[in-house]
TrEMBL record:
Matches recorded under PROSITE patterns: ABC_TRANSPORTER_1, ABC_TRANSPORTER_2
GO molecular function: ATP binding; ATP hydrolysis activity
Organism ancestry: Bacteria, Pseudomonadati, Pseudomonadota, Betaproteobacteria, Burkholderiales
Matches recorded under SMART domains: AAA
Protein name: ABC transporter related
InterPro entries the UniProt entry points to: AAA+_ATPase, ABC_carbohydrate_import_ATPase, ABC_transporter-like_ATP-bd, ABC_transporter-like_CS, P-loop_NTPase
Length: 264
């Protein structure tokens, strides 16, 4: 057996690593040297104030923006993500908060949007039967229940719609799933649906997830590890089992007081 290189540790393999990422928009520094790692099969929760740089980070990881400086690694390979399509081809999928579902189209159409199954032959006719069957199978597999995959997406609840968006991302064989506030503006029942779905996906294995979150308690429930971003930097990072809502709130409160110029 060959010996391991010195740099390798005993921790699980990394799905993704970002090193000292800086992102500037003109005079605005949105990310000021962010480093993170995502282990295979792990759920990482990112918390932080408005404007902290969370969405910018996700947009870099999904190829939508390119970093001003800093490095990204997928597995062991340094990678410059040129576009969302490029990231997708490498197995990185993102579910944005505004979802990007075509509301008037059916569930199964949405699940195969831009990667439709077509019949063999010169006319590239859509294979509706195959798409229906695959969509139903995929939703069944991850435990998302809808009356029929023929329903237009506009007839679903916000939570169900979010679930379809997640299912679509997973259906594309994503290895890394990025979720920007998937539970925002959702009631407890709908949020519960998405939380269950994410935990089921984790259980199935093979998927690493980064979620931007607002609610500290929900984050600690779902995520293996939690990261706090403040003004373009990562200011705190812990395994979820080693921190608490009280501790997270305390850090944010201290920051808020410092910014208001109070002593404590
Ligand atoms: N395309 C852009 N052009 C210019 N500035 C931008 C752009 N995108 C983000 N910013 C700026 O970068 C900073 C970080 O924004 P970002 O959207 O990443 O924050 P966020 O942590 O996701 O906040 P929120 O919780 O409100 O969604 C903000 O100051 C924002 O104004
Ligand atoms: Mg945001």
């Amino acid at each position: 057996m060959s010996s391991l290189p010195l740099s390798s540790s005993t921790s699980p393999a990394l799905a993704l690593r970002a090193e000292d990422i800086v992102k500037r928009f003109g005079a605005v520094t949105a990310l000021d040297g962010v480093s993170l790692s995502l282990r295979q099969g792990e759920i990482l929760g990112i918390l932080g104030d408005n404007g902290a740089g969370k969405s910018t980070l996700i947009k870099i990881l999904t190829g939508f923006h390119q970093q001003t400086s800093g490095k990204l690694f997928l597995g062991d390979d340094e990678t410059l993500l040129r576009s969302v399509d490029h990231a997708r081809a490498l197995g990185i999928e993102c579910v944005y908060q505004d979802l990007a579902l075509a509301n008037s189209l059916s569930i199964y159409h949405n699940m195969f949007l831009n990667r439709e199954i077509v019949r063999p032959g010169p006319f590239r006719l859509l294979n509706h039967k195959a798409m229906r069957a695959r969509a139903a199978e995929c939703l069944e597999e991850i435990g998302v229940h809808v009356p029929s995959v023929d329903l237009p997406v506009e007839q679903l609840s916000g939570g169900q719609r979010q679930a379809i968006a997640v299912a679509r991302a997973v259906n594309s064989n994503a290895k890394i799933l990025l979720l920007d506030e998937p539970l925002a503006a959702m009631g407890a029942r709908e949020a519960g649906l998405i939380i269950d779905l994410i935990l089921r996906l984790k259980e199935k294995g093979g998927l690493s997830i980064i979620m931007i979150m607002h609610n500290y308690a929900q984050t600690l429930d779902i995520a293996d590890r939690v990261m706090l971003m403040q003004r373009g930097r990562v200011t705190y990072e812990r395994e979820s089992v080693s921190t608490s809502v009280a501790e997270l709130m305390d850090i944010v409160r201290r920051e808020y007081r410092a910014m208001r110029g109070q002593t404590s």
